[in-house]
Each structure stands twice: as C-alpha cells, then as structure tokens.
Amino acid sequence: MSRLPRINGKDCIKALERAGFTVVRIRGSHHILQHPDGRKTVVPVHGSEELGPGLLRNILSSCGIGAVDFVRLLKGNPMTQGSSLQLPEPIQRVLAPLLEAVPLDQAMPRLVEGGLTSGTRHPQHRLAEQAAEALADNPGLLAGLWLYVDDLDRAHQVCQDDASATGSYWHAIVHRREGDFSNSKYWLHRVGRHPAMADIDARALVDAVASDPRKDRSDLIDKQREEWARLFEWCAKNPSP
Questions:
Q1: Picking from 7-16, 20-29, 59-68, 206-215, which range would have the lowest pLDDT averaged per residue?
Q2: How far is Cα 240 from Cα 234, in angstroms, rounded to an integer?
Q3: Count of beta carbons in the 10 Å neighbourhood of residue 69
Q4: Do residues 173 and 151 touch, judged by C-beta distance below 8 A?
Q5: Where are the chain's structural domains?
Q6: Which sign does the torsion angle of CA 58, 59, 64, 65 carry?
Q7: Residues contacting 24, CB < 8 A, separation 6+
Q8: Number of CB atoms found within 10 A of residue 131's CB
Q9: Residue 44 CA neighbour count, 13 Å, CB half
Q10: pLDDT per residue over 178-194, tens digit each?
C-alpha cells in the first residue's frame, strides 16, 4: 500500500477540490466537502497541524481516492482512471484497498489469458478475497471483482449461476479474455441490448482481439477497462438482476 504524505488540512482540501469536491459547510474547524456524485467527507483544519495518517486514510477512503492519486492531486495533476469510478460509498469503501493497490489503469493488462485461469497468483488476490465477502450478495460485482484480478475461473463460476443479461455480459467477457471468441459472441447474443452498454460495441471488441490475440494493443486494453468500469458501475447502482 502506498505511503501517505504528511500534510495539513488546508492542503488536503486543495487537493480534494482538484478532484471535484467543494466545501459545502464549515462547523468550527470541521470542513464538510461534497462531490457532485454524492461522496462526502470531513476535513479538520487546525492551522498548520498535520493530519494523522489514520485520519487521512479515512478521508481518502470516504472520497474513493487512493494514495497514488492523492499525491498526484497534491502536485496539481489529474487522477488516474481508477479513481474515476462512480460507486456508492459503501462499495467504494470495500474496494478502496484494492483500487489503491491496483488502479484501473494498471488492472487487466492482458487481452487474452489463454484459458480459464485462476488469479491466485495475482499479487493483490488477497485483497479481492477480502472484498468478495462484502460483495457476495451482488453476483455482478462479484464477477467483475474476480475479472479485475484476472481470476477467470472464479468469475466464470459466478456467471454460470447468473441468468440475467448482466450475468451473460460478464460471461461474454470471461470467454473473450479466455480466448474462446465464438463462445463470447454467443453470450453477447444472449445479452441483447444492455442498458449500461448502449454505446459500446462489444462484438467489435471481440473481433479486434481475435484478429491478433497475442498482441496486447494499448487501445484495446483501454476499451477493455472502459467496458469493465461501465458494467461494474452499473452493477453497483443496480444490484438486482
């Protein structure tokens, strides 16, 4: 886990404002900040007094911002793609350790794994297992979680028991990343039109990956991550199939 910087409350607020948060209320030394998507946090300001590491970590967790991205914000740089996930606060809290350790722009770096691989060798698989306990009631999130750490085997097990359109979409992604492209298209046919993916051409992505599955083109990896983020966000906000 990345080391947190030593900063005071004023600098923390400036960094959060670069991420879209605004101070909506001040109560004594407590500054209440809110993001347009509903995320909230409280930052105490006591002159130049530094925020304790535990307090700062709690602030960032409630904001859904990892340590790496926070340092970038302190320097005036934009956040990485991983922190742009729009998730309800309870889910964001559950996933914060994993997203901090593996931001979205570093996750799923290969287009094809070459089989229904187990992700147990992934360096952050333990963090995914911890998050899985809290996501067990949402099969869509659970399938996406295992795909995030390249555990196609567990993702496939979840998809097989989810007959919804969302489950079929995850199922299609599993088989595309496995390298079984015809099976991926079969499951996309089962999906029909998914409300979260209206402007994403999933079949074209399958064809593009199939045309040269051994070459991890950066533009296709970006599309793979965008597709994952779109469907994962939808599952977070629509827990019922």
A1: 59-68
A2: 10
A3: 26
A4: no
A5: 9-79, 89-237
A6: negative
A7: 32, 33, 34
A8: 23
A9: 8
A10: 999 999 999 999 998 89
- Degrees (nearest 5) of the Cα angle 49, 52, 53? 140
Q: State pTM to two decimals.
A: 0.67
| Residue 100 φ/ψ, nearest 5 degrees | -70, -40
Alpha-carbon gap, residue 184 to 156, rounded angstroms: 12
CATH number of 9-79: 3.30.920.30
DSSP state of 241: -
- Residue 224 CA to residue 150 CA, distance in Å, equals 13
Of 112, 84, 223, 85, give the one whose Cα is nearest residue 178: 112
Q: What is the pLDDT of residues 10-21, one digit of tens each?
A: 999 999 998 889
Task: Determine the residue type at 50.
Answer: E
